[in-house]
Amino acid sequence: LFTLIIEGKVEVTVGVANFVYIEGAFSYYGQTCLDPELALNSMENEINLSKTFVPDFSVRILSNVLMVQISSAYYNSAVRSTKLSLNLTNLSFKTPLDNPPKTI
After folding, report:
1. Could you tell me which residue, 10 or 100, shows the higher pLDDT?
2. Which residues pair with 5 in a beta bridge?
3. Residue 13 has pLDDT above 80, yes or no
4. Sign of CA dihedral 13, 15, 19, 25
5. In the structure, what pLDDT confidence band is assigned to residue 89 with cuts at 50, 70 and 90?
6. Residue 11 in contact with residue 22, Cβ under 8 Å?
7. CA 84, CA 82: separation in Å to the nearest integer?
8. Which of 51, 92, 94, 102 is least enclosed, having the fewest CB within 10 Å?
9. Can you tell me the distance from the alpha carbon of 9 to that of 67, in angstroms, rounded to the nearest whole number?
10. What is the secondary structure of the chain as a DSSP string?
């Protein structure tokens, strides 16, 4: 899950060295799980070990927290719906703005 902390404090422990720090509002975790390539592979194969997101961190809530969590399935569904509503024929995860025309 991608998680965005809107309000409150969390403690983040990272890596083998167990580096610990405190984060607050507008910090986010798990953005790798929204990777389009990872999402496409997980749709094709429920258990795709070569492309499974494995976090190297843990997050512990320290106070009352308001957060938003988005699964890769919901994220990719929203991306596809948006592209369909814009009548884009190519359903890849790139939009025309990702590859602007070259200027001569």
Report:
1. 10
2. 67
3. yes
4. negative
5. low
6. yes
7. 5
8. 102
9. 11
10. -EEEEEES-EEEEETTTTEEEEE-TT-EE-GGGG-HHHHHHHHH-S--GGG----SEEEEE-S--EEEEE-HHHHHHHHHHHHHHTT-S--SS--GGGSPPPP-
Residue appearing with tokens 């610990």: 20
- Torsion, Cα 20 24 26 32, to 10 degrees, reads 20
| Tokens 């798990």 sit on residue | 30
How does residue 9 score in pLDDT terms, banded at 50, 70 and 90? very high
21-80 pLDDT tens trace: 999 999 999 888 887 666 555 545 454 445 566 778 899 999 999 999 998 889 888 888
Residues 6+ apart with CB under 8 A from 77: none
Tokens representing residue 87 in the block: 């009548």
Tokens 């404090």 belong to residue? 9
Place of tokens 């999402």: 39
